[in-house]
Amino acid sequence: MVVQFFTISLFLFSFFSAPLRANSFTAKLPNKETSLVTESAIVSLYSGLQTNQYELPKLASFTQALKGFYKLKERGIIKKDILTLIDFSLSSNAKRLWVIDLASKTILFQSLVAHGRNTGEEFANSFSNATQSFKSSLGFYATGEVYNGKHGLSLRLDGLEKGINDNARNRGVVMHAADYVSNSFVKNNKRLGRSQGCPAVPVALSKEIISTIKDKSCLFIYHPKLVSSLSS
């Protein structure tokens, strides 16, 4: 009886003390291991990022981006361990785009990025999924294929959130280079230039960024106004 009681007690202790794993609050990583999607695990990953002398994104935006990344990776919607985070709560004069390699836990790029001309002046504050709105759309995207258009090398984006950004491809919302995304434009105009809704990036970095994130990586555009089921 003593041995049986001890065995049952040990089992119960092991069960209730074990962390919750995949299919509850987790997603499978590319190396087939599971990662706990807890606040402490996210903070640990965040604080352990190799910054390459770049600034860290805000923890709030990174947390939402990472939760959505795990869900999309588990579903097979995205294939790469690359996370692109755009924080539209920040001034357009700030470098508010990050490209992060989650496999090596390294920030690869930090860059200026434009928002739509009807989304706001220096700060982004109005968003839309509608054609001809000339506004940015928030939320999670899967990066698509590259093509050469009027802005040179460009990257198609597929919005993954119904009613929030799922009209992106039909709207022609893509990542492309723009000469109005530069420190010199900010200096002369007191704010960054604006697009027709595309997350435009500097000419000098566009090819490197697009080549890195193309073909089914995760892109997340954050703002406190966004309520996303993928990051809850």
From TrEMBL:
InterPro entries to which the protein is assigned, alphabetical: YkuD_2
Keywords: Signal
Signal peptide as annotated in the record: 1-22
Keyword Nucleus: no
PANTHER family linked to this entry: HYPOTHETICAL EXPORTED PROTEIN, MUREIN L,D-TRANSPEPTIDASE CATALYTIC DOMAIN FAMILY PROTEIN
Name of the molecule in the record: Murein L,D-transpeptidase catalytic domain family protein
